[in-house]
Amino acid sequence: LINQNIINPFIHHPFTINLYFLYVSGPLSQTSVIVSVGSSAVLHCDCKHIASSQLSEQSPYIRWGTISKIVFERKGAERFQGEGYKDRVDVPEDELKKGNCSLIIKDIRPEDAGVYESYLIVKRSKRSIPTKRVFIQSVELSVHDSPAPPQQNNKDYQSDKQDPPMTSSSAGLISVPSQILMFTILTNTLLRNT
Q1: In 10 A of CB 167, how many CB atoms?
Q2: CA 141/CA 86 separation, integer angstroms
Q3: pLDDT (tens digit, 9 = 90+) per residue, 51-67?
Q4: What is this structure's pTM?
Q5: Local structure of 155: helix, strand or coil
Q6: Full residue range of the structural domain in which residue 124 is found
Q7: Under the phi-then-psi rule, with left for phi > 0, alpha for psi from -120 to 50, and beta for the rest, what region is 121?
Q8: Mean pLDDT in the chain?
Q9: Which of 39, 108, 126, 138 can pair with 27 through a Cys bridge, CB separation 3.0 to 4.6 Å?
Q10: Where are the beta strands (DSSP E) in the chain?
């Protein structure tokens, strides 16, 4: 007879360590940003690697949205701010020309929480559909209900052309790799049964 424990790898032996690997398919580039109500958030995005040829010719056409709506679009000086985001969102044109497509959201509200995706809209050559969307990245925005304490550093992000200071209102950028998730289970039947 064949030993059933050899055939079934899910039967655990004392002092056995089982490793399981789970492959998750998804965006190559996903981050999480955690902010408080009333603060500002920067959803970091870099399109230099995608738009290098387009950057020298003209300002890129960028689109940020959620699964249900367009949040912001910019092509040169023209811009669109989605419903509920009026006067609160921007991708500065001068930064976009350099390949920085980071979305700035001011006066964060609880309903701003969710997953945001950025796309570069590019022209197609000799196609019936004149443009296509090229996915750049996905950012998950989490919002805490408590308002942010006053900032210690009052430097203006736009005037300094640098990332905002890392305070409790802008801190919390966490890199979350989503392409491969390794799920490890350590089991010890002997300890479980005691």
Answers
A1: 14
A2: 18
A3: 565 555 567 899 999 99
A4: 0.60
A5: coil
A6: 16-148+158-192
A7: beta
A8: 70
A9: 138
A10: 18-23, 30-37, 41-43, 61-65, 70-75, 78-81, 89-90, 103-105, 114-123, 131-147, 174-175, 180-185
